[in-house]
Amino acid sequence: MNAASDSLQPDGGWNPSKGVVGMACLIIAESAIFTIFVVAYLFYLGKSQNGPTPQQVLELPILNSICLLSSSVTITFAVRSLRNGDTKRFNAWWLATIALGTYFLLGTGREWQHLIRDKGLTIQTNLFGTTFYSLVGLHASHVVVGLLALLMVMAFGVVGAVKKEHAERAHVLSLYWHFVDVVWVVVFTVVYIIGR
Amino acid sequence: MSAIAKTDEISGSTALDPTTAQNKNVFDHIHSWLVTVDHKKLGLMYIMYGLFFFVVAGIEAALIRIQLAVPNNHFLPPQIFNQLFTMHGTTMVFLVGMPLIFGFANYLVPLMIGARDLAFPRLNAFGFWLSVLGGLLLYFSFIGGEGMTGAGSAPDVGWFAYAPLTAKAFSKGHSTDYWILGVLIGGFGSVATAVNVISTILCMRCRGMTLTKMPLLVWLNLIMCGMVLLAVTPLTAAQIMLLLDRFVGSHFFDTQAGGSATLWMHFFWIFGHPEVYILVIPAFAIASEIIPVFSRKAIFGYPAMVGATIAIAFVSMSVWAHHMFTIGMTSAGNTFFVVSTMTVGIPTGIKIFNWLGTMWGGKLRFETPMLFSIAFVFHLLIMGLTGIMLSAAPFNWQLNASYFVVAHFHYVLVGAIVFMIFAGTYYWFPKATGRLLSDRLGKWHFWLFLIGFHMTFDTMHLPGVLGMPRRIYTYEAGRGWGTLNLICTLGAAVQGVAVLVFVCNILGSIRKGQRAGADPWDAWTLEWSTSSPPPEYNFAEIPIVRSRRPLWDIKHPTDPDWKYE
Fold first, then answer.
1. Which whole-number Å values give the CA distances from B510 to B117, B186, B436, B437, in the listed order?
2. Rounded to an integer, what is the distance from CA B261 to the centroid of its chain?
3. Which residues of B touch A124 (CB under 8 A)?
4. CA nearest A26: which of B560, B338, B229?
5. How far apart are CA B22 and CA B412, in angstroms?
6. Residue B159 counted as domain residue
7. Considering Cα of B286, then B289, then B293, then B295, what sign does the dihedral take?
8. In this complex, is the C-beta atom of B81 within 8 Å of any C-beta atom belonging to chain A?
9. Domain CATH code at residue B432
10. Which of A23, B9, B97, B159 could be bridged to B279 by S-S, CB 3.0 to 4.6 A?
11. What is the ipTM of this complex?
12. How far is the alpha carbon of A174 from chain B, nearest alpha carbon, in Å?
């Protein structure tokens, strides 16, 4: 009987965390949404009936991209600190992540302001405007959602309610943040490199 | 998780003071359903919600059939006819099909894998109420769709809402906006529930239930939910684009500014075709539970069944453009989609043989759930054959958008899915309520529905072959379509009577039905090991499983399955 019950472990001990699986599913679903927007962007590339074109108005958002990508590093450090029970260091890294994300968002805002006010490109101008603002805007809206979630955790962290046992949840949230960063790599490639 | 929950939850539920329990008035009762996060209550609410809209969409179909019964009919004005077929299609897919399959998944998956709830109970409630909001928004269009311009009421753009008909210029008022928002929000609910079901299946199985020992219903729902993640979201993306087009003046589907109407078709069918499989795989799942129990044999070819379902899911993601042969693709494109579409027939054929192999040599018990299941296998064969016909591009050019297509997909949606929803209801009703549905009324329901179904949908192929297009609100006499359409309408009436019998059966049996006991069918999966209806905590003790038929092992300790698997 003992020998038989050894074989009762589900799938040889493979026991994934439901938070990670749930977030992975959400990421798969979100990837499909972004794929459709990317396909639309590529499909309409160069099909605008009037200007301005991407070559005329787009500038590489280098500093912005560096900020967002490095926020993936800071959030990894934050989660690692929390796993070690170092809540002070967690708070610091978490705040750094929020700051970098906010800088990215402000950068996107400045870019849009420049495009709308100085270059006269709106979502109504042509197919480039339509696909550009919707793809970049879809990504930016995900950054906003991510920042709201990060801020909520920050609020709990400031009052000292985030403890070592919450490391798993912080990890799950960090997966979403990494996803937002990876999507930016795709968007950057499609919009600013292939599309320009 | 299981160890701590056990004692707490049991003592919590028995500690309820009996006098206060009796004093619960009707508002307390309703309140307890509104705030519930219990997978069984949410599952039942999904099913009731689906059945309610099934009746609504049925009434819409009945009005359509009355209008088409005779040539030159003026029962409905054309505008109303357009609204009715749009609302019928949208309702049946998004407010009947999706809630019903998620209702069954919600109710059965935790019970079958020996879990106490889904992985995220509050996300589950969130998903359900989002679906309700979607349904209410869609139907609010009947009173709120006029908007400021006074044009239109319910949406009338067809369930696939082709561009540029949905542009602001051609769809004035807000009816199309309600269509977009209703479907969009329902889609969010579907994705939320799919995430939940997948997490539950992967993380919450009881001890000993490896992936290869899961009941087939659980496997097939896992695959279905994976498809929801990948297939519903493209529609969400396309709907967001359409909303942007209508509200902020972008040009995605605006052909005058260089936008493409064809792109919408692609995006819609990238969702639309896998959606058919999202709906039919749960029907396969129900059949795979019922047929073995009523054949008194274990399922034939369990690994082949799982493999075939994964193959269907995979192939069905790359067949969408067979809905679009008539837009004129390149011959390479046509060939690809013809071949990929025909390929779906192979795994589907494997499934049919597996069910037949299960029945072969079994001791068949012809009770109502089994009758519906046998009819389902037969219908699946017929719709597979007409599907192969339609997958050939030249044949499709001739018959696309004719009643032949309508007959074909109703064979899937009614002949397969609705039949299995009925079968599943007869099979699991005793588990959910503790009482059996009347078998006598069930047989009336089955035979009337079967006869009505074949009168309507067998006949409907013929006007299609004779050239009758879809979505026309009336037709001239003397084209040879009149008598056939009349037979279709009479068949619809017979189906209506059958559904009435079904509703009476439910309402009667819920109060006076025969007591079922825990295991009325002598079945083998875990949901039958707990009481009917199951307690809130499902299992007093989390079960331990050693084979695919854990209840067989308990009932036959001298000859358990795990010796052979």
1. 24, 30, 8, 8
2. 29
3. 248-251
4. B229
5. 46
6. yes
7. positive
8. no
9. 1.20.210.10
10. B97
11. 0.93
12. 18
Nearest chain B Cα distance for residue A119, angstroms: 17
- pLDDT (0 to 100) of residue A14: 67
User: Measured between CA atoms, how close is A28 to chain B, in angstroms?
Assistant: 7
Mutate: best of B252, B264, B544, partner A, most A CBs <10 A: B252
Phi, psi torsion values for B360, nearest 5 degrees: -60, 120
**Domains of chain A and any CATH numbers:** 18-47+62-194 (1.20.120.80)
In Å, how far are B62, B92, B199, B404, B481 from B66, measured between CA atoms? 6, 19, 46, 19, 14
Side-chain half-sphere CA neighbours of B468 within 13 A: 27
Give the Cα separation of B545 and B184 in Å (integer): 40
Using a CB–CB cutoff of 8 Å, tell me whether B262 touches chain A: no
Q: What integer is the mean pLDDT of A100-127?
A: 96
pLDDT value for A5: 41
At A16, the amino acid letter reads: P
CB count within 10 Å of CB B304 equals: 16
Q: How far apart are CA B480 and CA B207, in angstroms?
A: 63
With CB atoms and an 8 Å threshold, state whether A49 touches B257. Answer: yes
DSSP state letters, B87-102: HHHHIIIIIIIHHHHH
Total domain count, chain B: 1
pLDDT for B152: 56
* pLDDT beneath 70: ranges in chain B: 1-23, 145, 147-152
CB B136 within 8 A of CB B25: no
Interface touch B230/A48, C-beta < 8 Å: no
Structural contact between residues B154 and B175, judged by C-beta atoms closer than 8 angstroms: yes
Which of A2-6, A105-109, A191-195, B130-134 has the lowest average pLDDT? Answer: A2-6
- Report d(CA A5, CA B208) in Å as an integer: 8
- Residue B204's pLDDT is 93
In the 8-state DSSP scheme, what is residue B299? Answer: P
Cα–Cα distance measured from residue B251 to residue A41, given in angstroms and rounded to the nearest whole number? 12
Per-residue pLDDT, B193 = 97
Residue B402 in 3-state DSSP? strand
What pTM did the predictor assign? 0.93
Residue B464 pLDDT: 95
Give a yes or no: residue B27 inside a domain: no
Residue A183's pLDDT is what? 98
| Position B73 in a domain | yes
Q: What's the domain range around B58?
A: 2-6+40-563
Residue A88 has φ and ψ, to the nearest 5°, of -65, -50
- Give me the pLDDT at residue B376, please: 97
